[in-house]
Specification:
This protein is an alpha/beta fold and 341 residues long. The chain has a single domain (2-340), classed as TIM Barrel (Alpha-Beta Barrel), CATH 3.20.20.70. The chain has 13 helices and 13 strands. Strand 12, helix 11 (304-313) and strand 13 (317-320) form a beta-alpha-beta unit. Helix 8 packs across helix 10 and helix 10 packs parallel to helix 11 (304-313). The longest helix has 16 residues, at 14-29. Monomer. Catalyzes the conversion of dihydroorotate to orotate with quinone as electron acceptor. One of its GO terms (molecular function) is dihydroorotate dehydrogenase (quinone) activity.
Length: 341
């Protein structure tokens, strides 16, 4: 089915196509029997797929990465496509429009995307209100990916992460600290050792004041050097956060085959060009840390084999986004069935 409609969607601007697909999915789910139909097609329910990671029970290890549902608008709709968990965001304390359009580009020859969205979202309070109104999570785990507003200076960034943490705390199952997007000026500077430790330690201190604790993860860039990855291992162990998401988009353009005008667009690359590097980062972190913390693998997963490669490298769970766009909703069930084999 997806192979029939994909050419139509790919004639549209990527952002327009995204809104048409998600809007169409929402309308379809309102039809009597549609939810059950989607679940019968795309969900793979088998206790062998269950995973317990950082104290949470996942019905399967395949999640939807942050960026697809920035404002927690489509959680119930996407749940019917078989995901074991969904990560919303990146959410910032205050609403912001993001960067000027166009800001997303398909590199079809490379099966990739370039995006410079710039944390466009409706703000933490809006996301929290939507999460509060979810009627049936169906055992779905929800993550909250949080960042800082563009206008917030880096020396005050910790306050933005605190605001998002407090706003979403009652409604998400885990948090992801995003300091690795290349599309907010200066954000990646927060990956440096001291500012990063300040943010993570502050959130951990806040976490310990709550009636329960939420796992806090760190999302890192694929462009870090080995010495920087060594710092990440040390920081995770020192701050005792729950784990790492590896990786965000890359600023590298190495090996891309698409038209130069597209390749040279500013932004982060996701999709197949990231497959190898993200797996290398997962393996490095896993081996260097002696598997002392969980890793969620994301980047260039377009098949069950890609997902298995990341799990074999040391990931406990995986997430998809660009592969989901190129391969369609059957990708989730394909991965799950591949794991069962």
């Amino acid at each position: 089915m997806y192979t029939l409609v994909k050419p139509l969607f790919f004639t549209m601007n990527p952002e327009t196509a995204h809104h048409n697909v998600t809007g169409g999915l929402r309308r379809f789910n309102k039809i009597w029997g549609a939810k059950s139909l989607l679940r019968s097609i795309y969900s793979v329910d088998d206790p062998r797929l269950e995973r317990e990671v950082f104290g949470l029970k996942f019905k399967n290890p395949v999640g939807l990465a942050a960026g697809f549902d920035k404002n927690a608008e489509y959680i119930e709709d996407m749940a019917n496509l078989g995901f074991g968990f969904i990560e919303i965001g990146t959410v910032t304390p205050r609403p912001q429009p993001g960067n000027d359009k166009p800001r997303m580009f398909r590199l079809v020859k490379d099966e990739a995307l370039i995006n410079r969205m710039g944390f466009n979202n409706q703000g933490a309070e809006v996301a929290a209100a939507r999460l509060k109104n979810i009627k049936d999570k169906k055992g779905l785990i929800i993550g909250g990916n949080i960042g800082k507003n563009k206008v917030t200076p880096n020396e005050e960034a910790v306050n933005d992460y605190i605001a998002c943490f407090n706003a979403l705390f009652e409604y998400v199952d885990y948090f992801v600290v995003n300091v690795s997007s290349p599309n907010t000026p200066g954000l990646r500077d927060l990956q440096e050792k001291e500012p990063l430790k300040k943010i993570l330690n502050t959130l951990q201190d806040l976490n310990h004041t709550k009636h329960i604790q939420r796992p806090i993860l760190l999302k890192i860039a694929p462009d870090l050097t080995d010495s920087q990855l060594d710092d990440i291992v040390e920081i995770v162990q020192e701050t005792q956060i729950a784990g790492v998401i590896a990786t965000n988009t890359t600023i590298s353009r190495e090996g891309l085959q698409s038209d130069a005008a597209l390749v040279n667009e500013m932004g982060g690359v996701s999709g197949k060009p990231l497959t190898k590097r993200s797996t290398e980062v997962i393996r490095y972190l896993s081996e260097k840390s002696n598997r002392s913390f969980p890793i969620i693998g994301v980047g260039g997963i377009h098949s069950a084999a890609d997902a298995l490669e990341k799990l074999d490298a040391g990931a406990s769970l995986v997430q998809v986004y660009t592969g989901f766009i190129y391969e369609g909703p059957a990708l989730v069930s394909q991965i799950c069935k591949g794991l069962l084999k």
